[in-house]
Amino acid sequence: MAVGPFWADQPQQVEIDAVALAGRDREAVLVGESKWATSEDAGRLSRVLAAKAQALPNRAPDIRSSFGRPSGPAGASVRTLGLTGLSLP
Known about the structure:
By secondary structure, the chain is mainly β.
């Protein structure tokens, strides 16, 4: 497993805060964003991240998304992992 940011500028600029790669093929299995605003809507962020994930060269068909924010994601789907400041050790 490897985790790190992803940037691309072709065909358009894409930035993802964190991408988790797994397996020998280093397939992207999770994409994540860090947001400090407490009013972010996880449903909207999920759609934005799904669009950004299309730029990844090797992604899992069931890629998941994760958001970190101070109070957790509002409107998160079942495929979204929510992290808050309280989730961290």
